[in-house]
Design goal:
With 338 residues, this protein is α+β, with helices and mostly antiparallel strands. Helices cover 40% and strands 27% of the residues. Strand 4 and strand 5 form a beta hairpin. Helix 3 packs antiparallel against helix 5. It is found in: Cytoplasm, Nucleoid.
């Protein structure tokens, strides 16, 4: 993951009554193994956060020119009209003003431009601190300020390659969406000039529904159904870890090497309205599982989202009600009764 440019400014805010003060870094950070490790840890922490996915607002869509400030400044930098330090100092000053309005915290503001494979990225994040402990040379315990990557109220990543090469893309930009700070999240999106282009939670949920419908339609045996579920979740979680979207064609190929278009065609023909590429939502994926049980010759297994719709559980009578019987089972029952 080659680092092209990196700089770390500091924002200090002693209390809610005092304004935030920006202390710009005197120079870019030098490349080192520690910096590479920090970027890797930061990326892992960022990908695990709830995020919005979208794109920059176009000049035709808004009247407020302030919302275009960040993408224009970024364009100027990429076209060599300003250097990295100057570009980041300007952005950092606006973030300090945002903190003044919504947070009473200090921290370091990380900007890093890097290459991952063939893709060019820019990430930025406000890194908070926490008190930690260390053992000194005399074997004594001493306090030590440490970066707290788990707390990331402001962070964003721009896929520069996609932004510059595909004007129609609606998901080259992602940013953290702190559920406990709605005004802060809205202010950060406004500062970036960002608007949501895809609902990652809704799209992931619809994809899982399409997959369950596909499994039910094909009437796979239990072991095959479980195998395909594992493939889906393994692929989706790998994309979560890498911060990349799921591609429907790739997923379809992974689900069935013999019929690589089968799942893709199912989605297309049923018209679920899914985007070709879907940013995976980690929380939605973690809730997707299958309920299974076996007792006294009865084996039952179904996807969790079916509970409450085509399957109901009556707790008072400890009874499971199946509203839609699978085709294969229905035929067996009919044959038995006939």
């Amino acid at each position: 993951m080659p680092i092209l440019h990196c700089i770390i400014h500091r924002i200090a805010k002693a209390s809610s009554e005092q304004p935030a003060t920006l202390y710009p870094a005197p120079a870019e950070a030098e490349a080192s193994d520690s910096l590479e490790e920090l970027l890797a840890r930061f990326s892992d922490a960022y990908h695990a956060k709830p995020k919005a996915w979208g794109h920059f607002i176009s000049a035709e869509d808004i009247e407020n020119a302030q919302a275009l400030r960040f993408p224009r400044a970024l364009t100027d930098y990429l076209e060599n009209q300003s250097d990295f330090a100057a570009f980041t100092r300007d952005v950092a000053q606006h973030i300090a003003e945002l903190l003044d309005a919504h947070l009473s915290v200090s921290g370091h503001l990380l900007f890093v431009e890097y290459q991952h494979g063939d893709t060019h990225y820019l990430s930025l994040a406000l890194l908070h601190h926490r008190e930690g402990y260390a053992i000194d040379a005399d074997h004594g315990v001493t306090t030590s300020a440490q970066l707290n990557l788990a707390q990331m109220s402001l962070a964003a990543r721009i896929n520069l390659s996609q932004w510059r090469s595909d004007a129609s893309s609606r998901q080259y930009l992602s940013w953290t969406r702190d559920r406990g700070g709605k005004k802060l999240a809205e202010g950060f999106a406004e500062l970036l000039g960002a608007t949501e282009g895809v609902d990652a939670t809704g799209e992931t949920r619809t994809l899982l529904k399409a997959f369950s419908d596909y499994v039910e339609q094909e009437d796979f045996a239990e072991d095959k159904s479980r195998e395909k579920t594992d493939v889906l979740l393994e692929y989706a979680n790998e994309q979560v870890r890498s911060g990349e979207p799921m591609t429907l064609e790739t997923l379809s190929e992974l689900l069935d090497e013999q019929q690589p278009k089968a799942f893709f065609d199912h989605i297309r023909h049923a018209d679920y309205g899914l985007s070709p590429e879907i940013p995976p939502d980690k929380r939605t994926l973690s809730q997707f599982r299958r309920f299974t049980g076996r007792s006294n010759g009865v084996s039952i297994s179904f996807d969790s989202h079916l509970l409450g719709s085509s399957i109901e559980y009556d707790e008072t009578q400890d009874r499971l009600i199946i509203k839609k019987v699978p085709n294969g089972l229905r035929e067996q029952l009919k044959e038995r009764q006939g």
